[in-house]
Every structure is written in structure tokens, then in C-alpha cells.
Amino acid sequence: MFLIGIVASLIGVAIALAIDWFPVNAASTTEQIDTLYDVLLIVSVPIFVLVMTVAIYSVVRFRARPGDTGDGAPIHGNTRLEVIWVAIPTVIVSILAAYAWIVLDDVEAKQPNELRVVVTGQQFAWKFQYPEYDNLKSNQLYLPKDRPVKFDIKSEDVLHSFWVPSFRLKIDAVPGLTTYIRLTPSRLGKYDIVCAELCGIGHSTMRQYTTVVDEQEFEDWVAEQAEAAQGEGESASSGANTIPDAG
Length: 247
Description:
By secondary structure, the protein is an alpha+beta fold. The chain has helices spanning 2-18, 30-61, 79-107, 215-241, and strands at residues 115-122, 125-130, 136-138, 141-144, 149-155, 160-163, 170-173, 179-183, 189-195, 207-213. α1 runs antiparallel to α2 (30-61) and α2 runs antiparallel to α3.
């Protein structure tokens, strides 16, 4: 039984590590998170295989034979065995929790020259605001490559979850609270933004993109957005001050 479990565990771990679970890495912390995930797989797969091997073996080996209606033999508790099978999982989970906490603490560490972006979720779209650039507002998320970013996450209505799979990190947008995540985009390109919390009938349509560009292109985009917003403001002001012709 244990030989079968060991062989099955090795095969299971090999398959789990060979599968490409995630999209392309687009942030500096993704490798740490991917490594953590691999460690969890390496530990979890053998435990799952061991439990299932014992369960399947027991079902097959000790199943009731046709016509057998008697009770099984009485079983008395084994204190030593019970202590062992509680202590070992406790130690394993504690070590993994400590490792995960170290990774999370490193990922969430404050960085110099952070770009702050306020992300607001509402049914069924994301809105973005850049306080550093005169509170520029946009329905698009543009980020400069290699500059640390702090996202302040809010919700205008119900519970949402802000997730960019290529950045790995996600966090809930909770009504009445401001949550946050930190990351540093490290790869140019366009990446999905997904709501990972069921938020209503249009949940599946709550998808947008984040575009990672170089620093100069980001500054040019900010200037274009600011100019467009100013033009819209002047147009609205001009329209409001127009006196209709009495004739």
C-alpha cells in the first residue's frame, strides 16, 4: 500500500509541476508566489495520495462480503497514533503558514517612489484614479513598467474582487472599506483585469485591461488624459453659460 502511495505521489507531483497553471508573469513578485504555489503542491499531493490510497485500500480490503450481516470487530482507540496523525499535519500546516506569511510580508512591503492608484469597483466596471496627477480619473488602467504601485481598492455598491491574473495578487473590494495591494509591473503588455467575486447578473462582463508601458509613454498618456478631461470641462462650462435665443 505504501509502495503504491509513494509511486503515485511521485507521479502526481511530477504532473502537477509540469502543468503551466498561470498566465505570463508580469510583476516582479510573481516568481515568489509561483514558487510558494509549487511548494504547496509538492506537500499537498503526497498527503492527498496517501489518504486516498489508505481509504481505497480499506474499502476494498475490509468490505463486507455478500451475505455477511454481522458487526465488525470492536476497535479501541490508539492514543499514540491519534497524537501522531494530529501532530504531523499541525507541524506541516504551521510551517507552510509561516512560509506564506514571509512571502506575503515581502510582497506587501512599502517601496520608494510608489505610484498610488485608487481602484473603484461598481456593477459592472472598474474605475481608476491617479491622486499624484491631480486626481486624474480614467476607465483605463495604465501603469509604468518597473515602478512600484500601491492600489487602494474600494467599492461603490457590493462586494467585488480586483484581480489581475498576470500579477497574481487579488483582493476584495469591500463596501465601506479601503483595502490595498502592492506590486511592481515588470513586463510590457496588456493584461486582463477580472472581478473574482460574484457581484450580480453582469459579473462575467466585469472585465477590463491594464496596460503596462514604459515611463515616458505613461507620462504621455497622463498628459493626453488630462488634456481631454480639461477640454470636456471647458465644453461643459461653455454649454452651461450659453443664453438661449429668445426668438
